[in-house]
Amino acid sequence: MKRQLFQTTDSYAPLIIRVMLGIVVFAHGAQKLIGWLGGYGFSGTMDFFTETVGLPWIIGFLVIVLESIGAIALILGVATRPIAVCYIFLAFGIVFTSHIQNGFFMNWFGNQPGEGYEFFLLWIGMAVSLIFTGAGKYSIDGTISKK
């Protein structure tokens, strides 16, 4: 079981996918966890999730952890497949709680009430790819699977 979970190809493609997805998701996680890049930080984000969106506190907490600590783990190639599975559920959750009503496209011209869900489809596609390939070259998963 451990071997199947951590087994990966020795390819650069999953390396690029996991690092790029990790960087983009980490930027959002840093906003939520520590208030970087114009974010509200942990308390503000938890208040928004629980009071405005109506999520249970544990879901809000898990979103923050997945987008911050999970993104760092993804960049390093640690538990890539489980994190990718969590990211798929997270992206679907974000789409159905916050973006589906705004349609497909992002709000490029400011004429929609909010952002569409196209970004999250790319996120899901990248995560699905990582489930099939594993972490790729230069990953902790690769080191674990070789032992």
What does this structure look like?
The protein is mainly α and 147 residues long. The chain has one domain (9-140). Helices cover 71% and strands 0% of the residues. The chain has helices at 2-6, 12-34, 41-53, 57-76, 80-99, 118-133, 140-146. The chain crosses the membrane at residues 12-34, 54-76, 83-100, 120-140. InterPro entries: DoxX, DoxX-like_oxidoreductase.
DSSP strand count: 0
Q: On the 0-100 scale, what is the average pLDDT?
A: 93
Helix share, percent: over 70%
Number of helices: 7
Termini Cα gap: 14 Å
Q: Structural class of the secondary elements?
A: mainly alpha
Low-confidence stretches: none
Largest sheet: none
Shape: globular
Written as H for each helix and E for each strand, in order along the chain, the element string is: HHHHHHH
Radius of gyration: 16 Å
Percent strand equals under 5%
User: What is the domain total for the residues?
Assistant: 1
Write a brief caption for the model.
It comes from Maribacter cobaltidurans. Belongs to the DoxX family. The protein has one domain.
Please give a handful of descriptors for the protein shown.
147 residues, mainly alpha, 71% helix, globular
What's the topology here?
Blueprint: H1 2-6, H2 12-34, H3 41-53, H4 57-76, H5 80-99, H6 118-133, H7 140-146
